[in-house]
Inverse folding.
């Protein structure tokens, strides 16, 4: 359950609870809130950016030269840490891809092992950051811009 929805329901329960005098309704609302609070937060999900690469890939080398050194220090890198894998080897354990990877590099955004979206190829530094930010926004993955 998305965190924002969870807290909206809790706020509604407290609003109803504060104006309602019926003990049964108050008890049910209290149990509902306790149940919602016990659910895991969406932010605790494991988010990663997989990078499929292969030996001799010119565009992978260009990404490595332009982005790799800074990626872990960026809000995007903190939100979705990079995990590399070879195109010709097995997909990382526990990951389900929407389709086979055909090009290198391919960047695949995953949450709890499920693919959320991908960038096929490396379009250059500026366009890469724009596409990655769009992937993260579409998946509702917040960026920590304080670090």
């Amino acid at each position: 359950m998305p965190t924002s929805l969870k807290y909206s329901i809790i706020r509604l329960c407290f609003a109803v609870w504060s104006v309602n005098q019926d003990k049964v309704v108050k008890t049910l609302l209290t149990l509902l809130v306790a149940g919602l609070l016990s659910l895991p937060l969406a932010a605790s999900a494991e988010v990663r950016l997989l990078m499929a690469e292969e030996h001799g890939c010119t565009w992978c080398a260009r990404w490595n030269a332009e982005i790799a050194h800074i990626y872990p220090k960026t809000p995007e890198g903190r939100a979705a840490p990079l995990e590399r894998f070879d195109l010709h080897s097995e997909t990382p354990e526990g990951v389900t891809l929407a389709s086979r990877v055909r090009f290198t590099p391919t960047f695949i955004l995953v949450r709890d092992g499920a693919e959320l979206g991908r960038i096929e190829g490396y379009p250059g530094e500026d366009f890469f950051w724009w596409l990655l930010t769009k992937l993260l926004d579409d998946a509702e993955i917040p960026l920590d811009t304080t670090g």
Notes: The longest helix spans residues 3-19.
